[in-house]
Structure formats: C-alpha cells, structure tokens
C-alpha cells in the first residue's frame, strides 16, 4: 500500500471514529427525544463497524486500532460543559439543531473520504478496498440524510416557538 492510500485510510478511520463519538454524545444529550437517542446509537454502531473495517483494510501497513474510541471521554466533554454552564447553549431545542448540523457536516466529510477511497480502489485496482467502500459509504450517506431530515422536521417548530 502506498503512503497516500495509507493516509486516506488513516484519515477516514479518524473521522469515522469522531462521527461515532459525536453520535453517541448527541444521543446521550437528547435522551428525552427517543428517536435521537435510539437512532443516534444505531447510527454510531455503523461508524464503529466502519472503524473496524478500515483497521482490517490497513492491517498490514497502518496498525490502526480495531476498536472504536471510547464514547465517554471526560476531557472531551469539559469544553462543552463549560459553554453550557456559562449559558451559550441553554436551550435544549437550539442545542439539538446545532448538534444535527454538526452530525450532517461530519457525515458529509466522512462521505467524501469514502468517495476518495472508492475512486482510489478502482484505480489501483484493489477489490477488497472497493468492497469495503461500497459496503460502508451508503450507511454514511444515510447518517447524513437522517441528520438533515431530523433538522428539517424540527427546525421550524424550534425556531418559532418560545
């Protein structure tokens, strides 16, 4: 595997991990919204599986962790808690909109990573890498579409109600 392909796999591994953690954080934060809680966890499991598959794809050269990063990192939560305490994000409904936008942006970035990997795998040709991209990329697109649909469903009501 050449260095550029390795870098692409490593970056996608990192961003899938970040997306999984973010989905779990949002799920925990919005426990009272059952759709966000349960679907957020299901969508996070997809990214966690993608992390495992990317680690397998780069196993010979990259030494990537096969297990997704832990979702409850106290140090990562401190800046967010601090901003909540000083009142920047005091409205849970507005926080949900912000969180959905962040999920959408993160999933869009991951989707682009899968696209790069799929195009690279076709050019090499690397059937195993292409199969991985073809298996995982559609799930990332669904993660992005869910965040967009949930935002569309919620935005007007959240923004016009007091």
Question: What features would you describe in this structure?
Answer:
The protein has 162 residues and is mainly α. The protein has a single domain, classed as Up-down Bundle (Ferritin), CATH 1.20.1260. Helix content is 80%, strand content 0%. It contains five helices and no strands. The protein has helices at residues 3-29, 34-57, 74-85, 92-123, 127-160. Helix 2 runs antiparallel to helix 5. The relative contact order is 0.15.
Give the helix/strand layout.
Elements: H1 3-29, H2 34-57, H3 74-85, H4 92-123, H5 127-160
Helix pairs in contact: 1-2, 1-4, 2-5, 4-5
Q: Descriptors for this entry?
A:
single chain, Ferritin, 5 helices, 0% strand, elongated
Percent strand equals under 5%
Q: What would CATH call the homologous superfamily?
A: Ferritin, core subunit, four-helix bundle
CATH level-1 class: Mainly Alpha
Number of domains: 1
Give the SSE order as H and E letters.
HHHHH
Structural class: mainly alpha
Using only CA atoms, what is the Rg? 17 Å
CATH architecture: Up-down Bundle
Count the E strands. Answer: 0
**Envelope shape:** elongated
Q: Mean pLDDT, as a whole number?
A: 88
Low-confidence stretches: none
Number of helices: 5
Largest sheet: none
The CATH topology: Ferritin
Measured distance between first and last alpha carbons:
56 Å
């Amino acid at each position: 595997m050449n260095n550029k392909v390795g870098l692409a796999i490593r970056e996608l591994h990192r961003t899938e991990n970040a997306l999984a953690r973010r989905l779990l954080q949002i799920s925990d934060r919005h426990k009272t919204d059952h759709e966000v809680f349960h679907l957020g966890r299901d969508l996070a499991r997809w990214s966690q599986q993608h992390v495992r598959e990317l680690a397998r794809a780069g196993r010979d050269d990259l030494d990537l962790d096969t297990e997704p990063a832990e979702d409850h990192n106290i140090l990562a939560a401190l800046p967010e808690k601090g901003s909540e305490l000083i009142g920047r994000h005091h409205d849970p409904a507005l926080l949900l909109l912000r969180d959905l936008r962040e999920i959408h942006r993160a999933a869009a970035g991951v989707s682009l990573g899968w696209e790069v990997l799929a195009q690279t795998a076709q050019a090499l040709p690397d059937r195993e890498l292409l199969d991985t991209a073809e298996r995982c990329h559609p799930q990332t697109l669904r993660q992005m579409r869910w965040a967009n649909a949930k935002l569309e469903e919620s935005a007007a009501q959240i923004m016009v109600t007091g």
